[in-house]
Amino acid sequence: MGRTRSSTSDVFQRLAGSALPEWSVVEGAACERRLRPGEALFLAGERKPFVFVVNEGIVKMVYETPNGDSWVKGFAESGVCFASVAALEEDGLTSFSSYAVVESCIHQIDYRVLLRLAGQHIAWQRAIANALKFYGQRKERREMELLTLSPEDRYVRFMHDNPELVAALRQSDIASYIRVTPVALSRIKSRLGKQGDQ
Questions:
Q1: Distance, CA of 9 to CA of 18 (rounded, Å)
Q2: Which of 76, 73, 181, 169 is nearest to 189 (CA)?
Q3: How far apart are CA 53 and CA 82, in angstroms?
Q4: Which stretch of DSSP H or E encloses residue 75?
Q5: Quick one: pLDDT at residue 6?
Q6: For residue 138, what is the enclosing H or E element?
Q7: Where is the Cyclic nucleotide-binding domain (predicted)?
Q8: 186-195: which pairs have CB atoms within 8 A and are 24 or more residues apart?
Q9: Which candidate, 133, 123, 103, 83, places its Cα nearest to that of 39?
Q10: What is residue 2's predicted lDDT score, i.e. its pLDDT?
Q11: Cα end-to-end span (Å), the chain
């Protein structure tokens, strides 16, 4: 999973549903980041008015509490773009941290450049609108799962929906994503294993 590669232009063209004008402007504004496993892309509380495109690898997004706990809010794999929406506001700061799960290559693009292009071209308007729509859909689904499903059901759904992603993740990250401790995850897996043996 971590070795699949996707180009930044493919990601945005897929969002737009068409070719994008003035692509050279985005290429000029893009900065490539190469991260080792565990290395931070950004930390909470930083000024990062960027859209990040994962060209290769996996990034996890993490909320960290004042007492040192951390919970994975989501993952972005190759072919996915993401941002801290709070940081896209004027003088906004990131509300979460992000770290490479495996060796990763990420393009960061100044959101203001994308907004300028959207003000001039309908295709760029579509790309940004669709990116925000997909973000909203993922956020709504995540909230629904946390509020209505049991930890065991969240685990089963995550494993079913993300088989390739799961293969690259540590069990502690999966536990954090479904909002249980690693010990509780081990118990869930044990119960499911026993059910499968029956």
A1: 11
A2: 181
A3: 7
A4: strand 70-77
A5: 87
A6: helix 122-148
A7: 32-119
A8: 188/151, 188/152, 188/155, 189/155, 191/152, 192/152, 192/155, 192/156
A9: 103
A10: 43
A11: 32
Alpha carbon distances (Å) from 164 to 3, 4, 57, 160, 184: 11, 11, 12, 10, 23
C-alpha–C-alpha distance, residues 116 and 103, integer Å? 32
| pLDDT tens for the 198 residues of the chain, in order | 445 788 999 999 999 999 999 999 999 999 999 999 999 999 999 999 999 999 999 999 999 988 888 999 999 999 999 999 999 999 999 999 999 999 999 999 999 999 999 999 999 999 999 999 999 999 999 999 999 999 999 999 999 999 989 999 999 999 999 999 999 999 999 998 877 654
Tokens of 8: 């930044």
From CA 190, how far away is CA 152, in angstroms rounded?
A: 11
How far apart (Å, rounded) are the C-alpha atoms in residues 104 and 101? 8
Q: How far apart are CA 169 and CA 124, in angstroms?
A: 34
- Which of 102, 60, 103, 104 has the alpha carbon at shortest distance from 82? 60
pLDDT computed for residue 66 by the predictor: 86
- Which class for 119: exposed (0-12), middle (13-18), buried (19 or more C-beta within 10 A)? exposed
